[in-house]
Amino acid sequence: MRQQISVVTLGVADLDRSRRFYRDGFGWSPVFENEEIVFYQMNGFVLGLFRTAALEADMNRAGLSHPAAFALAHNVSARDDVAPLMERLAKAGGSVIRAADEPPHGGLRGYVADPDDHAWEIAWNPAWPIDEHGHVTFAVS
Amino acid sequence: MRQQISVVTLGVADLDRSRRFYRDGFGWSPVFENEEIVFYQMNGFVLGLFRTAALEADMNRAGLSHPAAFALAHNVSARDDVAPLMERLAKAGGSVIRAADEPPHGGLRGYVADPDDHAWEIAWNPAWPIDEHGHVTFAVS
Lengths: 141, 141
Known about the structure:
homodimer
């Protein structure tokens, strides 16, 4: 089976609030939106914001909870870009979970939760190549 | 800010159990592994399985819970590939949350939870192009 993920879907309580967070915080533009879902074209896959009730219905599973045992990482291209982006995300409705500091493997990273408590790691990791399309290749630091 | 995610990290209770699930269920091979984390090179980003306790320490946040309000989708290339993959995932230690059926937008999809209750949508969606590198482009069905 191909090592492939097509969509990362986040359940959100308020689609407008989330759309604003991703626009004002990250500066991202949807490729599609309706009253239940917003899609963003990412680097090789699609990010979806889906009303949690609709995600629960689609999944056939109620009572989805948070904070959850997962994180998404967004990498920036310079060490000095980490803190300003984290500030921008906090101003846009996010909450800083961990201020930026150096992880054991090097670089710099912090964590911000989006309005639904989904954790975003904002990282500068000079060891991992990112090409002009935003595609990331694993490399040992 | 680039519309970019570098890493999708899943917190897992037992790294060996998860590694077996992703190997025997999806047939995936790690690009890196140690006692705390396993990385898979995906289509333009990296999937990480991280011991939940280590993820909590990294995130500076305790009590991560499940089932969580998010899902990852793996798309297959033919309608008839959905059910066999779901069976294989269930045999490898996953749990079927929703048997495959047709969503309102067409195609076919079902949901399987991994051993840590992370939800995977297994989908056939003929509307979304997937190139030879596994990179997915959003398209309206």
